[in-house]
Amino acid sequence: MDLKGLFCEYQFCMGHPIDMAFYDVSAVTSNQGSPSTYQSGLMAAYNGNLLIQLMWQLAPGSSDAQFMLDLILDDVDTRVGTLDVKLIRNMNVVYSPITTTATPILPFGAAGAWVCGDRAFAWKVYSPQAENTQGLFDAALDRFACNQ
Questions:
Q1: Average pLDDT, integer, range 56-82
Q2: Fewer CB within 10 Å: C terminus or N terminus of the chain?
Q3: Domains along the chain with CATH numbers
């Protein structure tokens, strides 16, 4: 999967597949049609083979992003295996493969979370194969940058 696409808004950038575009879920789901902001947001991208979610919120003084991992996982998601914790470009990153019952077409996935500056971020993907989720996360995070 080629992650040459780059979403840049809200003073951060995130890699994504070139055949997918992020849309603002916050504007659709909020009662007042409020779009995402620097302080918090929820984006999603979808094609027939993947669903990607990206969320963020202010978390000044925090260096442990595990709470964001818990936040992005829905009731239909189940962590698989142990939580992978690593330091990537001065960011504490947590990652876990998941299974999901959200859709039978995309039963596998992964979720990750990290802190950059005064914000915590979480990313989740649903996929038809378990084998590509780690590579998708790594490639997306490789292209991540935020204003600190």
A1: 92
A2: C
A3: 5-146 (3.40.1000.10)
